[in-house]
Structures are given as structure tokens and as C-alpha cells.
Amino acid sequence: MCGMPSAETTRASVHEPDLVPPTKEDPVAATGSELFGGPLGRRALTGTSWWTPVRVVALVAIGMFALGMVQKLPCYDGAWFFGASSQYTHACYSDIPHLYQGRGFADGLVPYFDKLEGDMEYLEYPVLTGVFMEVASWLTPGSGSIQDQEQVYWMVNAGMLMACTAVIAVCVTRTHRRRPWDGLLVALAPAFALTATINWDLLAVALTAAAMLMWSRSRPLAFGVLLGLATAAKLYPVLLLGPLLVLCWRAGRWRAFGTGLLGAAGAWLAVNLPVMLLAPEGWSKFYTFSQERGVDFGSFWLILSQRSDTALDTDTVNTWASVLMLLSCAGVAALTLGAPRRPRFAQLAFLIVAAFILTNKVYSPQYVLWLVPLAVLARPKWRDFLIWQACEVAYFLGIWMYLAYTTSGDAHKGLPQEGYQLAIAVHLLGTLYLCAVIVRDILMPERDVVRRSGDDDPSGGVLDGAQDVFVLGPAAHPPRHAAHFDGPYVEWGAGEGKGGRDPGSL
Q1: What is the pLDDT of residues 451-460, one digit of tens each?
Q2: Are residues 123 and 132 in contact, defined by beta-carbon separation less than 8 angstroms?
Q3: Are 203 and 132 in contact (CB under 8 A)?
Q4: In a domain, 349, yes or no
Q5: 179 sits in which H/E element
Q6: Alpha helices in 362-486 (DSSP H)
Q7: Has residue 418 been placed in a domain?
């Protein structure tokens, strides 16, 4: 009897999947692990400690967020208030303290209902982000100087955004059941820590990460509600419905998609409709501002504008940006329907959001936060992820040094225009590189590190292991290697929705 497993061990072996340790499959992760004692050993005990992957990743993410707050210390101590260029030379700029007074929160104005002084007129953020900003202002004492209030407002927002960071870390860690340690890529991402408190984007990122977790658990209604809330906080999450539509088309999962779509529309309307009806001018400001905004920082449009003799017309840029985005959507759809094996949801989610970022007329440095969780789920390869992160850190430094150059007068401290254009090019090339390796994984699924470990689409929910019902091009006649490369890991005939796949679905 002593040699027999206990009931607890038996239950754990039945219900807990075999985890994929990154140090066993990723050379960069294995090398980095030497700082902490080396790769996981053959006799290591897993799953018996309080230090579960979720807890470790969440704590590391919070620790990195705190380091990002420390990096903003020069601005907190005065650069936000007393030196226009010093907040750029220290690379610690944040919109949060500036907008506390600039958008009427210091004066008790109600977003979307009360007009602001100056050209802006109304708050130019989506409704749920406006609610987030307003709640933070309620928690900010109105006593003391305006500088003191702005410091407290930034700190209150930082605390709320830290909670969003923990949510993101937990959701990404739990989305791929067998690969929880991939969440360390989110936790340790340097660009994540550096940009987390520039603006309020982490609210939408957290809701999107939670939505993807719900979809991976085959809960389309919860997915839709969370995605609708995320879209009420930032526009980009709605883009995920596009690739999901094509994936469900290929797999015939129309009911799940329809449920998610209705949940998203209902949640978005529940947040927006009251403000839309009671304060239509204030509600529409975000959408009109996005249309009327000219070419701005970080985009390839800015390089074109700065290198041309005449400024680019805003309407023309809007048109061409829309055309390029539509072509990108068509390309993603063709890739989805024609790939030899159905792409994973996270892969397409990254590609479509990256396409939006690459074609948009502005790229603020905190937009990298949109892509970090998607990149981890789409391509959990440390080398590629760190190459991309290095490019984003270079851009983060480049934009602040360029602004320091433009605001330092005759001193010209910082990066001139040509140097900033190079930083933009580095950001664009880094993002395109990650897109290229993800597209390669889709076209050559044997290169996909997630599927190489034996999974189909762990973030796919009802799509995971589903049979294809509609395919085009190469998918209709898959090459032999695409149909059989993962044979040792696949148990055929498990049936639809049971984790099995038939050869026609590859």
C-alpha cells in the first residue's frame, strides 16, 4: 500500500495538465534561469508549494510595476510641474497628473456633461475610462496645493492600475493551462513597466485579457460582456471580433460567436447609452477627436509628413489609413481560411491589433501595452519577445529625447528629428518582425511552440480541437507534413469539443 498513490495525488494527476516548463524548451529561458539556480530538475516537485505559477507571476508583475513607479520618481518630485523638458530628459512623463487639472477633475467638473476651458471642450476618452478617471478624482483629497493634489491623483491612479496589472498577469497565466510560466513574459516585459502609468490603457488591457481567458474556458457570453466593457474603455478590443468571426466561420461555431457578439454589444451599450442620451456632445468627443486629429507621434505617417514639403491632409491620411487597415483585415481573413491548419485565436488577435497600430496616424508609447499580453499568447518565445521589447524600449526613450530636444530651446538637449524618425522605424520594424514570425507559425504550424508541445488552440475555447467546416486554398488540401507533424501528441477521434481533431481540421 505504501507504493500506491494517494487519492489527492490521483485526483491531481487526472485534473491537472502536465505543465510545459519554459526552461526545457526555450534556450533563452534556460540561460536566464541560471540566475535563480538553473532549469527545473527531473526530480523537482511541482504543484505542492504555495508558490504556484499564478502567484509567482502576479507578484513579479506587481514588483516590476513598482519599479516602473520608481522610474517616474524624478517627475513625481517636481519635473511634472517645474520643468517642461526635464520630464522628457528623465523619460518619466505621464498624462495623468497633467490631465487632473487640464480636464477639470481638480475643479469638480463632471466628464462628458460639463464643458472644459479651451479648445478641447469635453473629455476625449471613452466612457469607461472617464469613469475610471472620475473615481480616482473622488479618492484624491481636494486640500493642499494643486501640485500636491496632482501627485496624489497620480498615486491613486497608479494603485488602481497596479490592480489592473495583477489581473492581466493572472489572466494570461491561466489562459494556456499547460503553459502558465509564459505569464512571466508579461510580468518581466520592460516596456510594460516603463509605460504602465503614462495613461489609463491598462484598464482596457485587463478587461481584454479577462475576456480572452473566458473565451479559452468556452464561456462566450462572459467573453462578450468583458470585451464590450473593454471596448467601452478603449476602441482597440473590438478588433478581436474580426478574426474570431473568421475562425468561427472556418470551424462552424456560429452560436458561440453570436453569443459573444451579443454580450459585447449589450455591455458596450449598457455603459455608453446613458451618456449617449444625456450628454451626446460630450459622449461623441472621443470619436470626433480621433477623426479630426492630425498626423502625430510614432506613426510612419509622421515620417512621411516630416520628409515632405507639404503637411499631409488629415482627411487623406484617414482615408489611406482606413484602406490599409481594411487590406490588413482581408489579409488576416485569407490567412485564416487558407492556412494548412486553423490559426490560434491569440495569433490572429495579435496580428489584427498590430495592423491597427502600424497603420494608425498616431502611436503613443503606452500602446505597446495593448500588444504585450497578445504577444505572449501568440508567440511565447523569449528571444523573439525580447527582440521586440528592445525595439519598444528604444522607441520609449526616443520619443522623450525628441520632445526634450524640441522643448529645450537653443540648448537642443535630446534627439533631433532624424534620430526620432530612426526610433519610429525601430518600433515599426520590431512589430513587423513579431508579426512575420507569427505568420510563419501559421503557415508552418510545426514551428509553433504552443502546438509543438501538443496543444491545438488553448486560447480557442470552443475552437480548440474543433473540426473545420469551411476552408480555402491550401487548407482544403493540406500537405502531408501539416496533417501529421504532431501525431504523437494528438488523440484522434475524440470528437467535436472533446479535445480531438480529425485530419481534415489540420
Answers
A1: 988 899 999 9
A2: no
A3: yes
A4: yes
A5: none
A6: 368-378, 382-407, 417-443, 449-452, 480-484
A7: yes
Q: Confirm if 356 and 325 have CB atoms less than 8 A apart.
A: yes
Q: pLDDT above 70 covers what percent of the chain?
A: 85
Residue 399 belongs to a domain: yes
Give dist(CA 396, CA 197) in Å, integer.
13
431 grid coordinates = 512589430
- Indicate the Cα dihedral angle 344, 350, 356, 358, nearest 10°: -130
Residue with cell 494548412: 340
Between the alpha carbon of residue 120 and those of residues 18, 99, 102, 114, 387, the distances in Å are: 54, 12, 10, 12, 38
Answer whether residue 46 is part of any domain.
no
Q: How far apart are CA 488 and CA 479, in angstroms?
A: 18
**Structural domains counted in the chain:** 1
What residues contact residue 392 under an 8 Å CB cut-off, 6+ apart?
191, 365, 368, 427, 430
pLDDT single digits (tens) 465-496: 999 999 987 666 654 444 334 433 333 233 33
Distances (CA, A) of 435 to 89, 229, 250, 438: 32, 27, 22, 5
- Residue 51 phi, psi dihedral angles, 5° rounding: -80, 70
Tally of residues, the chain:
506
CA max distance for the chain: 85
204-249 residue pLDDT tens: 999 999 999 999 999 999 999 999 999 999 999 999 999 999 999 9
Which pLDDT belongs to residue 210?
Answer: 98
* Residue written as grid cell 514588483: 63
Enumerate residue ranges in the chain where pLDDT < 50: 1-15, 37, 43-45, 479-506
Instruction: Give the three cell numbers for residue 268.
Output: 458596450
Helical ranges in 17-145 per DSSP H? 22-25, 27-32, 53-71, 73-74, 80-82, 86-89, 95-102, 127-138
Specify the long-range contacts of residues 103-110, CB closer than 8 Å, at least 24 apart.
103/133, 105/133, 105/134, 105/137, 105/140, 105/153, 106/137, 106/142, 106/146, 106/149, 106/150, 110/134
Three-class secondary structure of residue 287 per DSSP = helix
Place of cell 471596448: 231
CB < 8 Å & 24+ apart, contacts of 392-395: 392/191, 392/365, 392/368, 392/427, 392/430, 393/190, 393/191, 393/194, 394/423, 394/426, 394/427, 395/298, 395/365, 395/423, 395/424, 395/426, 395/427
Other beta carbons within 10 angstroms of residue 232's beta carbon come to 27
Q: How far is CA 403 from CA 29, 389, 398, in A?
A: 36, 21, 9
Closest CA to 75 of 57, 92, 63, 95: 92
Cα separation, 77 vs 485, in Å, equals: 58
- pLDDT value at residue 42: 53
Domain span at residue 451 reads 293-465
DSSP conformational letter for 42: T
Has this prediction a pTM greater than 0.85? yes
